[in-house]
Specification:
Helix content: under 10%
Structural class: mainly beta
Distance between the termini: 38 Å
Radius of gyration: 19 Å
Length: about 300
């Protein structure tokens, strides 16, 4: 499959971010092989290259509260940067979510694409309008809006699970929601099925950073209550049922400013996650600047636990 840096997300046995799987020798098998059928970034509406894509794990670290990984790929010859950093942030008792940073530079159109298992989704935080003149792939019923804001897409994911995608848009970003290929059975029991495809689209050159938060929760009991950008280069604040989480991922290194009742804390690193509960630092996780000669493996400190 043309699926480098695809993100696949399950929780409690439920599929939250969908991978359509395989149609084997079905005449339409390319529909599940193509890049837009996966949760990744598509450049210029073209599939990734089939060979010599390479790939490198840039870091992988785990702790009691954080599992983080960064990887890059040569999936597109026109891409100077094609890199993804994803982290599972865990607070125990099923209270967890995923933060995703996708950096890309290259091409003239950059589409951050994801989709769920449900045949419908609800959108909050922006007003989608029918866009009959706007085209994207072979999608149907396309709706669009200015996506340079914080907005949510929500869908049911089997059983009593709900998936919420928080989209932290960058300036100039366009939000598209449409129906796309959803068939998964090579025996055609679901022929004609469609699912919502969510596309966050940027046009032109220059670096892009797509930042998202995905949470699966039992219906009616969300843990994530809000999200906002602190720095479009790669820092955000996530409001939870327990307090505030700060997460930073930078292209090289950055400084994360964390506020508590005792004052401010500055954390320097390549990747960092901090939880503030009852206005005190509960725990911190830092991956240092990989270009620093003094860099050592990151870890977790602070107080508190699940």
């Amino acid at each position: 499959h043309y699926d480098s840096l695809n993100l696949y997300y399950w929780k409690n046995g439920g599929e939250l971010l969908s991978d359509l799987g395989y149609l084997w020798d079905h005449p339409s098998k390319h529909m599940t092989m193509r890049t837009v059928a996966h949760n990744t970034v598509v450049l210029d509406e073209k599939d990734q290259v089939a060979r010599d894509r390479g790939g490198e794990v840039l870091f992988f670290r785990t702790s009691e509260h954080v599992k983080a990984m960064e990887a890059s790929s040569r999936a597109y010859p026109q891409a100077k940067v094609y890199r993804r950093t994803s982290a599972a942030i865990r607070h125990g008792e099923g209270r967890n979510y995923v933060v995703d940073f996708f950096r890309v530079e290259g091409g003239t159109r950059q589409d951050y694409v994801y989709h769920g298992l449900s045949d419908t989704c609800q959108v909050a935080g922006l007003e989608l309008l029918a866009a009959p003149l706007e085209k994207a792939y072979d999608f149907s019923n396309l709706r669009a809006a200015d996506g340079g804001c914080v907005w949510r897409a929500t869908w049911e994911s089997g059983g009593d699970m709900t998936c919420v995608a928080w989209n932290l848009g960058q300036p100039g970003e366009r939000a598209l929601v449409a129906g796309g290929w959803g068939q998964r059975d090579w025996k055609n029991s679901d022929i004609g099925a469609t699912i919502p495809y969510i596309v966050r689209r940027c046009e032109g050159g220059g670096p892009r950073t797509f930042i998202s938060v995905f949470e699966g929760h039992q219906r009616g009991t969300p843990f994530v209550r809000g999200a906002k950008l602190l720095d479009p280069a790669g820092a955000l604040l996530i409001e939870t049922a327990l307090g505030r989480d700060y997460v930073m991922s930078m292209a090289e290194a950055g400084v994360l400013e964390v506020s508590t009742s005792g004052g401010g804390t500055r954390i320097t690193g390549h990747f960092a996650a901090v939880s503030v509960q009852n206005e005190k630092l509960a725990w911190t996780f830092v991956e240092p600047d990989p270009t620093s000669a003094a860099a050592t493996p990151g870890g977790e400190g602070g107080r508190g636990g699940d």
